[in-house]
Structures are given as structure tokens and as C-alpha cells.
Amino acid sequence: MNKKTIEIRNQFLKFFHKKKHKIMQGSSLIPKNDTSILFTNAGMNQFKNIFLGQDKSNRYSKIATAQSCLRTGGKHNDLENVGYSTHHHTFFEMLGNFSFGGYFKKKAILYSWELLTSKKWFSLPKENFLITVYKKDEETYDIWANIIGIPPDRIILVGNKTKNSDISDNFWQMGDTGPCGPCTEIFYNLKNNTFNKKIKNLEEKINDYIEIWNIVFMQFNRINDGSLVKLPNPSVDTGMGLERISAVIQNVSSNYEIDIFQILIKDIAKISNTADLKNQSLYVIADHIRASYFMIVENILPSNENRGYVLRRIIRRAIRHGYLLGIKTIFFYKLVSSVNKSMNINNIYLLNKKEYIENILKKEEMQFRSTLNHGLKLLHSKIKTTINHTLDGEVTFYLYDTFGFPVDLTEEICREHNIHVDLLSFKKHMEKQKNRSREKKTFNQNYIMMHNVENISIFMGYNTYKTESVIKNIIKNEITQQFISSGEKGIILLNKTPFYPESGGQIGDIGIIYNNEGTFKVENTKKNGNMILHFGIVEHGILHVEQKVFSEINEQYRSNIQKNHSATHLLNSALHKILGDHIYQNGSLVTPDWIRFDFFHNISIPLKTIQEIEELINKYISKNILIKTKTINFTDVKEKNIIFLSHKKYEKHVRVISIDHYSNELCKGTHTNRTGDIGFFKITSVRKIASNTYRIEAKTGKNALHLIHSQEKNVHEICSILNTNPNNLKKTFEKIIVKQKKLEKNISKLKEKNVANIIEKLSKNKIKIKNITLLINTLQDQDLETLRNIMDILKNKFKQAIIILANLVDNKVNLIVGVTNNLHKLIQADKLISIILKKIDGKGGGKSDIAEGGSVYIQKLPKTLKEIKSWIYSII
């Protein structure tokens, strides 16, 4: 190897630094200002707004980066190719140089050629290159042919895919409209054999070369009618895969043979005892541990949606390939150290994340391995019975729904067996499940729309608790009505209202709607589109459509909700500060009495940490910070580092709740004026509710104080019972536990003695038939554990035995039947007990070696045991 991968990266950046480029840090794997993609998939992502002309703040005309990328879906989906192709990865590094008016085609090509071929830099032989150029881009062709000197037979002109379109592999565009332009691609001949004939197309040498660098010239803007307009400041965007150029420079035929991958592959081979270092499963695992590592570094956790789902798919695919290699134990997390070693990571932040990453991978693998075996067995059995080499979508859905098998994992396994997956059928089963879920919802909002109710309700409740309103619609028994009278339940819609509808985790307001003719008690408030629905009952009188009414919320109820909602924001902030930035809200409920907050987190939270969270929140409360509200454009949210739910759709303008610099969140809910209004915050419980998901429940103000008083009362009552005081309560319990353990030990000894006595007596009653021991006996008042213990000892004592033990307790009979393994062909315990239970009207069952049952008809027992003894005699 001439150069290590790390040296190649550094040389690239050093080269462009000498060419007066600003060397910039690569951006996060999570795109900062682009919701169109889940992950950064190219070096140009962080400069997208500059290319679009939306960002005028860039001070540099020439930039170079080494950008971490992830490609797992959409246009750039390399996941299926990983392991089967030698040059595709999920996670990889893209080396790129960019020009924003600093230079254009000529310099971009000259720079690339100098870096690749100069003896001072990469020193690759010039005769091994092949170039592609967009057919209409004569300027680029001229640079390669006449300035660089590439022979015409090694320059391929690539045209449009069809006569009536501009779509071409060598014409790049960001979207249907916007910046675009021709590109030129640089290919390298991996086999080092000279080209001895004119190459007409890329396919002729597909096994001989690989694309290593793409240079895009953004010189046009495609407008709505499809035509191209020249840009005033054309730009250059280039991308060269670090792993690919490393394979070329290190003179190996596969990316997986370069130094950084070989470290990983050898470690995986050692764990799996695999001798073949070119095994495709080794490639998959090596790629996927890198992707998993850097996704978790970005605080992405395995889940069933968005980025978390992609991570889960990658981890599970790696685990499955470990299974193919014969690895039967938890292994994936052990490779975190290998990533640190292969990537030469010396960053303290990343090194400190090692244990955190290992814990997440270990838990995810433990969870998946418990179902992997069952799922694989089912899938392989179904593959054997497929018709026309097609797996039914119902099987794919069952694997997905029951075992958590990603669909692409099922597809991959089927592809290995030349089986097609019926995805259309799978989607139909998914849709059926969604329809079933919709049918289970208790509140059917759609019926309101069926009655042509199209009113818009204006919410006034941020600034007032009472409004003068007009009744626009009344709904009774799911039908629109003109009036609603005393004792009737229904829904009232107003033109404007102070009632906050259930939304964003905050429950709906309660209160009254009234005038001189009647009063409607509002028991809940919900939202349907632009309508606010007031659910309740008429307490007296009658109310009509188009009547003027006063609508007034219950102020105390709302006040308690507001305290809890503001406390929820403080809780979210405290969790980020104490547990880490990976915290991601996964649901909440804000009521007047308590708070529920669900969030992604991967390890248990000790009491000490819970107390730290409480202390921090109460510190915020004691500062009595003013809670501010403002409206901003949603496009500014990420830039201002405001917390929001990425899976949720937001309008163009959004409401931000700010609590000094401690908390900034998007929220439509109602809040207190100051943090001091909350009073006091107390966590009541912390528990895990799903994989990587925890739930905190808490109370504030008087409710929190009442909780503490209640707990104090319980402590004093326990102290009274134990004749101690709160200060000595722990010691008292420790003494009780010691005493209890001593008693349990004594009881255990007595039980052992009791069992020994029983076995001695039972052994005297055994009957020998040929070489088989038959033992049928009745015991009194033994617990089930003792009965099972006796059975185990007797079966071990008598090597060939049939044992029936009946235990009489509380006017019931418990039966246990045991048959030693060497007699199963002659008689089975489950069949034997079923005969006995049938005669005494009992229930039970078991296996061929042990079975249990019971009945309340004890009077039939003696005769039945006598008959079964005769029956066994006849069988033997």
C-alpha cells in the first residue's frame, strides 16, 4: 500500500488548501435545513441554499470538504448493494471541492487531473483513465481532449436517455426546476490493462473500471416550462468517494480490501471463525457497524419511524449476516472498538461515546435475536412451498408485524433463493391493518364532515377566559340540529371560543356556554380541521343555532393545565441537559392533575439522576422566569435551534414558547406567565414502556405537595406498625429482611426433611412389574412445588418408572404424573393423566414425561386410581 486512507483524505484537503480553497468541516449526517432528505447523502448538501441562491452570506468562493454521507433510501439507495457490490456503502466519506464563482470548467478539470496524476500527489498512471462527457457539452470535451490530452477513444459522449427529454446520466439537476448542468465523470481502469480499441459505451468495460470522481457544472436554471436559462454565476460541485479512490491508490480491486475495512473485517472474521476474508457477510457487517456507529453518534436511536427505523434496519441486517456466519451470541456491539481503531479516532467526544454506542447496539441485538430464529424458520419454510418463485405478501406482512422483520430483509433473503416478494399483496395487508386501527377509534370525526358542517372556529383563549360568541351548529346523535334542550347531550360549534381543544398532548378545556335561555356544560373540547367542538350536556333551558351566548372556561382547571404544560417544557429541557441531546419526545399528556412525558432513551435512569432532573426544574421554577411567546417562519426553526417534532407537519408560521435560554419549543398550547406560577415539581414515576422508550409521570403545585403529604402519612403509619421512627425505618427493614431470610432457610431445611421422609415412605409402596417401577400414592396438604420436587427425585431414583401422585388439599385433588424417558414408546404421561382426569371430571395436560391436573370430585379418586393401576398392568 502506498498510502493509508487517512493520508489520502489529508492529501486531498492539503491539495485544495494550496489552491486557495477554504477547508470546511463536513456537516452533520442529519441535514440542517433540508427536510427533503433524511440523511446527508452528498458533499453539496450543506451548500444547497448557496446553489439555489437563497443564502447570500457565504464569504468563500472556493471550498473543499471531506463529508460523511449515508445512503439508504430514495434516489441514492445503496443498502441493497452493500455486500454484493465491492464499491457501494451505506456510510462513506465524500471528498469534494466547490466553486461559487471562483472558477469553472477549465480549472475544475485541471485541478482534478493534477491531483490524480501528479507524482507530487496521487501519481496514478494517465493511461488508465476513461472520461465521460455530456454530449452537448463541447467546452468540457475540448478541455479533456485538447488541453489535458485524453485520446478521443477514451472520452465517451453520453447523450439524453430519450429523444424528447433532457434526462441524461451526464446532466445533473437538483429537482424538476432549479440549478442544473452537465457533468463529467472520471473512471479508472482497475485491471491496469490498456485500452486497445475504441470504446463506444460504458457497458463494454464495466468489469474493468470504476467511477471515482464526478464534476458537476451548474450553469443553468431550469424554469417551470422546462427551458434552461444561463445562471449569472455558474458553480462547480464535485464528489469523489474516499473509499473508492483509496482502493485505486492502494491497488486493490475492492473497497473492502483497503486498510480501514481490513481492520474491521479481520476482527469480524475472528469473532465468527471465518477464514474467507472476502465473504459477503463480512462486508455487510463491516459496512453496517460504521453506519450504526456514526448514526448513534448523531443521537439517532433505533425505533420504528424516520431515522431511527433506518438505523434499526441496518443493525438487523448486520445481525442477520452474523447469523449466516454462524455467530450465535451477541456480537455487534463488540465492533465499536474496531471502528475507533480502523478510523483512527482520537476525538475525546467520540471515545467517550464508546460505552453509550455499545449499550444501544447490545440492547437492540438482544431484542432482535429473541425473534430472529423463529422468523427465519418461518420464512425458510414458506420459501420451500412458494408457487412460481413468489412469496405471498401475507407472509411478508406477518414477519413484519409479528417478528419486526424489515421488508427489505425479507426481500434480501428471498433474493438469495431466487424468490420474488409480492409487495403489492403486502401493501394490501398493511392497508387492511390501518383500516382496522381506524375502526377502533372511539371518536369518529368524519361524521361531522358528512353533515356539511364547514364552520371555522376562531380560538381566543390565549388572551381571555370568556368570549361573547354565536352558536353556528348543534350536533345531537351524530345529526345536525337547530336546537338542544335540557338533559340532552351533544356538540356545539361557535364562531369564536376561549376553549382550548385537545391538541399537542394538552387535554381540552371544560366550562359553560350560556345565555338567558339555557346553559350548556362543556365536558370536553376537541378539534376537527378548523372547527373546535364543545362536547357536553344542557343543564337547563334550551339553546338554538345563531343564538348569541357567552362561552366561559373553568379558570382553575385551565390554570392547572397551564402550570403542567409549562412544567413539561422545563422537563424536556432538563432531560436534554442531564441525559443528553439524543433525547427525543415521543408523546405527552398534560392534564390539570398530572403530566405524562414519553421519550427515546436507551439506558435506565437511576434515582440520583431523577433527583438531579427534579432539582434543575425546581431551580428554573424558583427563578420565576418570564415565559415568552412569538410567531416565526417554520424555515427558521432549525437555524434558531428550536425543539420540534420532526415527524409532525407544521404550518408556514409557527408559535414558539421561550423560557429564557433554557427552553425553546414549538407549541400551540397554553402556558403560565412565569415559571414561578408552577410552584413546585415532583416526579412520581419513571419506567420503561417500550424498547428505548421511557415514560416520566409528574405533578406540580398543590398536587405535588399533596403527594408528598400522602407519602409522609404512609411512612408514619408504617413506622407505627413496626414500632420505629422514620430515621430508623431503613435499619428496621434490614433487620426484618435478615430475620425473614433466616426463617426461609429454616423452612427450606424442614421442607427438604419433609420431602426425604415422604420419599422414604413412598419407596416402600413401589411395585415392580418386570423391570419397571410402578408407584401410585395419595398425599395430604403438600404444596405444588414440593409435589414437583418429590416427582423429580423419584424419577431419578427409579431409572424405569411410572409414577402417579395425588395430593388432597382443601377438598380438591392435585395430580402429577411422571414417566421416565426410556418408557415413552410404551406409555406417555400426558395420555395417562387425560385418562385419569376424564374419570374424575378434571382438567389438565402436559408432555410425554410429565403432566399435571386437578379436580374437585375427590370421591371418585380411589376407584379411578385402582382402575388405572390395572390398566397399566395390562399395558406392561
How would you describe this protein?
The protein is α+β, with helices and mostly antiparallel strands and 876 residues long. It folds into six domains: 5-252, BirA Bifunctional Protein, domain 2 (2-Layer Sandwich), CATH 3.30.930.10; 258-372, no CATH class; 386-440, no CATH class; 446-553, Elongation Factor Tu (Ef-tu), domain 3, CATH 2.40.30; 560-709, 2-Layer Sandwich (Threonyl-tRNA Synthetase, Chain A, domain 2); 758-875, Roll (Diaminopimelate Epimerase, Chain A, domain 1), CATH 3.10.310. Helices cover 37% and strands 27% of the residues. It has 22 helices and 36 strands. Strands 1, 2, 5, 6, 7, 8, 9, 10 and 11 form a nine-stranded mixed sheet that branches. The protein has a six-stranded antiparallel beta barrel with strand order 15-18-22-21-20-23. The protein has a six-stranded mixed sheet with strand order 31-32-33-34-36-35, with helices on both faces. Strand 8 (171-173) and strand 9 (178-189) form a beta hairpin. Helix 12 (393-403) packs across helix 14 (423-439). The longest helix has 36 residues, at 729-764. The radius of gyration is 37 Å and the shape is globular.
User: What is the residue-averaged pLDDT?
Assistant: 87
Q: Into which percent range does the helicity of residues fall?
A: 25-40%
Helical stretch tally: 22
Which class do the helix and strand fractions yield?
alpha+beta
**Main β-sheet: number of strands, strand sense, barrel status?**
9 strands, mixed
User: What are the segments in which pLDDT stays under 50 over at least 5 consecutive residues?
Assistant: 440-453
| Number of beta strands | 36
CATH T-level fold name of the largest domain: BirA Bifunctional Protein, domain 2
Radius of gyration: 37 Å
What would you say the CATH architecture of the largest domain is? 2-Layer Sandwich
The level 1 CATH classification of the largest domain is: Alpha Beta
Shape: globular
* Oligomerization: single chain
The CATH homology group name of the largest domain? Bira Bifunctional Protein, Domain 2
Portion in strands: 25-35%
End-to-end C-alpha gap: 77 Å
* Number of structural units classed as domains: 6
